[in-house]
Specification:
heterodimer, A: mainly alpha, two-stranded antiparallel sheet, 10 helices, B: ABC transporter involved in vitamin B12 uptake, BtuC, 13 helices, 4 strands, 70% helix
Chain lengths: 303, 328
Amino acid sequence: MLTFIQQLLNGLTIGSFYAFVALGYSLIYAILKLINFAHGDLFGLGAYVGYTVFVYAFGVIGGALGLWGLLAVGFAAAALATAGAGLVIERVAYRPIYPIGRLPAVVSALGMAIFLSNLIMAVWGPRYLAYQESFIPTGFWQIGEFRIRILQVLILVSALVLLGILYFVVEKTTFGAAIRAAALDRETAALMGIDFLKVIRFAFAMGPALGAIAGVFVGMYYRQINFTMGWVYGLKAFTATIMGGIGNIPGAMVGGILLGLLEAMTAGYISAAWKDVFVFAALMLMLIFRPTGLLGEKVAEKV
Amino acid sequence: MRLLGKRPTWLYKQPVRWAFLAATIALLLSFPFWASRYWIDVGFYVGLYALLGLGLNVILGEVGLFNLGHAAFWALGAYTTAILNVRLGIPTLALLPLSALVAGGCAWLISSPIIHLRGDYLCIVTIALGEIVRLVLINNPAGLTGGPNGVIGIARPVFLGHVIRTPLDFYFLVWAMVALCAFALRQLQRSRIGRAWNYIREDEIAAEAMGVDVRSLKLLAFVLGAALAGLAGNIFAAKMRMVSPDSFTFMESCLMFCIVLLGGMGSIPGTILGAALVVLFPEIFRPVAQYRLLFFGLALAATMYFRPGGLWPRRRAVEFTAGRAARP
């Protein structure tokens, strides 16, 4: 029982990371039908920007605003910087290419992914960097035999709140309706006076910003970051996106959480070394039997 | 195309093409006799990636199936060679066809249930497949794959009593394979199967309506491409004398994908050119080693902007209409 609850908590935490990152993939795929391979590395960039702010601003902001103030500044900086990077990448590497075709856009996205991870390596070096304890909330609550870390609660709550806000924006507001319309049929949406560029910009700012927040959380949770982390989490989060049904916001959340739970449970009960094999095998089975995902998009192949 | 404008027609004249081919072969044959050992090795890798690229070109270039897990089949070929050679002592070169068979067979087993998936989904399944194969190799099932350390001590291949040992030997081995495969694939390209493949790529539904057996032809392409990767795996294992999971990462699959798209989908000389670029790029930029992949990423995006059809696109119209009329 103890293992179960502990793994449940771990699974939910990891699942929140995946959900955060999966959202960016899903949002961009919904609008452009482009798998943004660079998204995972934008998430990595977020973790590094957060780290830099924490390390260099620790003395200044940490003294004036305390730990929580420092965290707020760090998260804001990471989200803003990464959103900016997302917008630049969209402008420079995708916008000139997606009128040409989808395959060149995929290659361009791969190129950007390689570029970004190597940029991170060139700036911050190839070695692991450690998130120091002084800027991580280390408290925990002891309930009976097991403990809940404040950080885990923080991660879960922010996942719920932020993804809830995004869900509200996309499903309930006028701008959200514009996004959904653009995702459904770009040309008709443009004829109805929807500014397609604005929708794209929203997706390329919002997705990476959420990814960056997840990046900082991952740094805090595992206490270390590396320039290759973007690939790893990107791939997993993409799996989560597919599981939930690509192009679907609640789907990305459900897929992320489910993937996290699956991973934690296989690690806890079967074997930690085989957990990724189970994750990817589940993905393949899912695609064979229910290719549109759990809450899948409903699209027939257009003739 | 946009950069260079319209290409002059004399480039397509038959004698010019033959002269160009002869010059390329002469360059490839003479290269190891004036280059240093190091560059011969680089030449070997160009050949190896050309072989991998040719395999992926069948899947991605001819039929348009997104495959981002091609390294998995390469790994299967390499590990088949390594395990059977080290455990049972079967000569490495004799395992060449077997490695291709194993990789092709696995591809058939795995791709049968997923081949109907549309573009992006197939892409994801192949990514997952690549990761599964790599993770299984790391996890060392039944002590066969040696875990993260891999399998070491693969015997040198022996060809008609001659031990293939030096970079020069391997250079000729791999390029002989490339020449053989390129020729065979070119013949296939111009056959009924090749045309059906291209038809599926251009419009799957129309092809099916015209009576093309889409499913079988897609499977055939997948199996054939994987088998070529298996061949490359055998040569790679023989050259390195060891195999480890580190060699078969997702990054490698991405590089192969880029080779095909850089060269031009469905273009055999294009694929070889793409392999040369992908291998030579980091070598040429070795002085700025830390930043070379950075530039590589940028170069990929830039190439797709300036030449979205690849650097050496295939001329379909000439081949199928004018070419046919010229040769009754």
